[in-house]
Amino acid sequence: MNAVVLLSGGLDSYTAAAIARSEGFSLYALTINYGQRHAHELAAARRVAAALGVVRRHELTLDLRGIGGSALTSDVPVPRDRDLAAVDIPSTYVPARNTIFLAIALGWAETLDARDLFIGVNALDYSGYPDCRPEFITAFESLAAVATRAGVEGARFHIHTPLITLSKAEIIRRGLALGLDYRLTHSCYDPGPAGQPCGHCDSCVLRAKGFAEAGARDPLVR
Questions:
Q1: Domain 2-214 -> CATH class
Q2: Which of 35, 101, 116, 196 has the most Cβ atoms closer than 10 angstroms to its Cβ?
Q3: Within 13 Å and on the Cβ side, how many CA atoms surround 75?
Q4: Are strands 26-33 and 116-118 parallel, antiparallel or unpaired?
Q5: Digitized pLDDT (tens) for each residue of the chain, 222 residues in all
Q6: Cα(124)–Cα(217) distance, rounded to whole angstroms?
Q7: Closest CA to 36 of 79, 84, 68
């Protein structure tokens, strides 16, 4: 069975892809260079893809900086030490990013005659992004059924979200049980020149919380 996996180089997408592999899927990894603040996560995606032994890796450039609206695609400062219990959607939200990414993944899946897509979204330990919720995934599956030739002809696309209801600690435990090397990943939104994590953005804080609660050491933190 073939599956298209969205692979960012982060902890979550690495774990989701590894779960797909453990379920017997042959992996076709899609990484999007969308004009994000730094290239460290792209390098991490390449490392992760190699470690997973993907059948094929496709890195597509789709520059979203022209759209703007996010601290990840502009010079707007990345929020630091934000209250993760806040209900507002932070400035690191990239408008419609997962909709765009899944649409591209869906197109590639159709050309591969694949009906399974994996994305590492999470709706528990996350920053409140609207396109990480179960409602979004359900709606996108419905869209896939009417937006593709395969869907119109009766095929059913399945958007797999194996992490969506897990805490970050549970995600990390699952990955460690699968033998994953999290040294290969990159999570920080605003790293230093050598890629060192800032320790203060939402992603760093959530990652630190997850490793602490999992009773494990983050290999990226000295």
A1: alpha beta
A2: 101
A3: 0
A4: unpaired
A5: 999 999 999 999 999 999 999 999 999 999 999 999 888 999 999 999 999 999 999 999 999 999 999 999 998 899 999 988 888 899 999 999 999 999 999 999 999 999 999 999 998 877 789 999 999 999 999 999 999 999 999 999 999 999 999 999 999 999 999 999 999 999 999 998 888 999 999 999 999 999 999 999 999 987
A6: 21
A7: 68
For the chain, what are the domain ranges?
Answer: 2-214
Q: Which residues pair with 4 in a beta bridge?
A: 28, 117
Residue 166's nearest CA partner among 217, 206, 109 is 206
Tokens 């993760």 — which residue? 84
Inter-residue contact 159 to 140 (CB < 8 Å) = yes
For residue 116, the one-letter residue type is D
Q: Does residue 26 sit in helix, strand or coil?
A: strand
End-to-end CA, the chain: 40
Structure tokens at 153: 């002809």
Task: Tell me the C-alpha distance between 211 and 192, whole Å.
Answer: 21
pTM of the model: 0.95
